[in-house]
Amino acid sequence: MSNKEENWLERNTFHHGTFWDLIKLVEEKEKKGLKISLCIPTLNEEKTIGKEVLILRSELMERYPLVDEFAVIDSGSKDKTLEVAKSYGADVYLASDILPEVGDKRGKGENLWKAIHQLKGDIICYVDADISNIHPRFVYGLVAPLIHRDEITYVKAFYDRPLNYSSGLRPSGGGRVTEILIRPLFSLFYPELSNVVQPLSGEYAARREVLEQIPFPIGYGVETSHLLDLYEKYGLETFAQTDLDRRVHRNQTTNALGKMSFGILQTFFNRLHAQGKLDRMPDLETFYRRFEVEDGNYHQLIQEVVEEERPPMIEIEGYRNRSHAS
Amino acid sequence: MPIEQMENETLLSAILENLPGTIEKIRARRDSFLTDAVLLGEIPSPTYGEEERIRAVMDRFRENGLHLPLVDEFGNASAQLPGTEGQSSILVMAHADSVFSSEVRHEIQVGSDFMTGPGIADNALGLAAMISLPKILSDLNITLRDNLILVANVKSLGRANLEGAHGFLETMSLPAKAGICIEGSTLGRLSYSGLGTLRGEITLQVPSDYDWQRFGAAGAISHLTGLVNQIREIPIPKEPKTRLVFGGLKCGSSYNTLPRQGSLRFEITSEEDELIGQMENHLNEICEQFSAETGTRVSMEVVAKRKNCEIPFTHPLVRTTRSIMQEANITPKVDPSTGDLNALILGGLPAVTLGLTTVENLREINETVQLEPLYGGMAQVISLIQAIDQGICES
């Protein structure tokens, strides 16, 4: 590992416990005149959304006014997600109602992208809706480095135990896709980014000025594309990561992870193309193939997975007009 | 009518008049209180293992600006909201321990009108209610003349035999004039008496030199079954009200191996302490005789014992509580307590236990509390504190 990377790990890797003093954090935020928006993208999350909205609003808007705006942006839930979120005071939006002139695409990335237009904060913090052990640290642990350090623009969550620098051990705590797909890819093409402990974690906070400059894959590739695009534009120095300890969420089936990996790979190779890292690449397939076993026989299942993308928000007329109007 | 009584009735009328408004204000300010219930409820807190939950309670006491936050030698967390006069104190307790072990996944689900999870009713909700009192009082612009002493007591359930509550009361520096125990379950609960209780565990062992050829030889399960049948022969009177409950049986590990050891947990409750003593003696005799006749080793351990205690139904504290419940449209259900209330009343403190809301699946993994009745449940506690503060509840 290079000195630069070691320095980055030491300076830009935090533990949420460092930021326990929320009174001081709110003071610092107010001194810098920052506004913070919190966005939870949802699709059929009635079992966990109530607790997330209740705890995060109560602790981070009412008890400690760290968050200025709290929105749930939904992809068209069929369950009681919206009713439950509203009952605990969240501002609830349908992604399809935001910037209707650009159309409606179904996916988490769409909600995150449209949040940039809908929300007013200088910092936007995204938290997944399926966290069953939600705690205020999932937000303050991510926004605190942005409040304290002006040069940091994007903060990513990681979980489980902190890094152990002295022994050289660095348990990642990553999921299967991280370990089997992302880390080998990063090691091959973006070695510096392999220092990001959990590149696929769904919790991160970023400054508006960087979020509006990057495209957003609609589906599985959004977390990967953020890292690759911001790394290409600004380098490792503007990233930070925070250990949020334990995160409990739904376990995904291996089939679901396969589909997810397929989407991520599309995003990844698109970047390799765009950044000239591969000389010649064939057009990528959009069909994901997997096998199913029935009575000892293998059947191939083919499923289309297209990773659509949104352009940088700054290119959207509606967004630019909104900026001028405000 | 004596002047003092007339004054008290006027004061109580004013409190009761405000009750509907209090319920609505509590409903509008529910979030921080419900948040505390979830955050505390998700920290496992089995009896004798409450430290982490107590740390969280202490954090809240400090964040809420309470005076003298302290963890005492027994592990109880306490703090004070000083009164404007501070001549006397009101004690509010909620037990911090739960029947669920640390291995159980403590996850609370929050719906728009309910919360579900292990221990949310017993007693994460009660604990959160106690912690939130200073903030709710402040939001409602209620200032107390008395000091409000808040206690999250540990070691309350099962074998602990109210150790935390007894310990706190024995070492409490400020004398209190009345006490309230808060439980999540169940709205309408009105306890003003403590029921005489004996909890015990009978252990049966088949010794290594046991003669398996003797007449009636059997494994521990068969023997324990025989023992249960003999215990069931003990006459239990209807008056004074008395009950014997078998609450747990542990024995065996497979389908086809005769177990050599087993244990049986039971509880005797009675309105008559002497009767409990007689039943204890009877049980000891049965164990001794059973042991001699079967060649097994049978021993009985008493793990908790409480005496009967009460304040009268006509005590002003009970009378005022009933008036408040009536005004809040809560139907009182008189329910003698086997919990912390015993420690308070035996310690000489007039006290009641109140429940906060309706509960399903109590002490199951999917314990569920309804939110709508909760606001009335909280309002009754606030109103009772006001009444005690204004001297209405003194005999």
Structure description:
The complex is a heterodimer of chains A (326) and B (395). By secondary structure, chain A is α/β, with parallel strands linked by helices. Helix content of chain A is 40%, strand content 18%. In chain A, helix 7 (176-189) runs parallel beside helix 10 (254-274). The N and C termini of chain A lie far apart (46 Å). Mean pLDDT of chain A is 87; it is low at 161-172. Chain B has 2 domains: 3-194 and 308-389, 3-Layer(aba) Sandwich (Aminopeptidase), CATH 3.40.630.10; 196-306, Alpha-Beta Plaits. Helix content of chain B is 38%, strand content 25%. Chain B is built from 10 helices and 18 strands. In chain B, the strands form 4 sheets. In chain B, strands 1-2-6-3-7-16-8-15 form an 8-stranded mixed beta sheet, with helices on both faces. In chain B, a hairpin with a 7-residue loop joins strand 17 and strand 18. In chain B, helix 1 (3-28) packs across helix 8, helix 6 (220-231) runs antiparallel to helix 7 and helix 8 packs antiparallel against helix 10. The longest helix of chain B has 26 residues, at 3-28. The model of chain B has no long low-confidence stretch (mean pLDDT 94). Chains A and B meet through helix 3 and helix 4 of A and helix 2 and strand 4 of B.
Which helices and strands occur, and which strands form pairs?
The complex is a heterodimer of chains A (326) and B (395).
Chain A: H1 3-12, E1 13-15, H2 22-31, E2 36-42, H3 46-63, E3 69-74, H4 81-87, E4 91-94, H5 108-118, E5 123-126, H6 137-148, E6 154-158, H7 176-189, E7 204-207, H8 208-211, E8 216-217, H9 222-234, E9 239-243, H10 254-274, E10 287-294, E11 297-304, E12 309-310, H11 317-325
Parallel strand pairs in A: 1-9, 2-3, 2-5, 3-4, 6-9
Antiparallel strand pairs in A: 5-7, 6-7, 8-12, 10-11
Helix pairs in contact in A: 2-6, 3-4, 7-10, 9-10
Chain B: H1 3-28, H2 30-41, H3 51-63, E1 67-71, E2 77-81, E3 89-95, E4 109-110, E5 114-116, H4 120-139, E6 147-153, H5 163-171, E7 176-185, E8 189-191, E9 193-194, E10 196-205, H6 220-231, E11 242-251, E12 261-270, H7 273-294, E13 297-306, E14 309-310, H8 316-327, E15 333-334, H9 340-346, E16 351-357, E17 359-360, E18 368-370, H10 372-389
Helix pairs in contact in B: 1-8, 1-10, 2-4, 6-7, 8-10
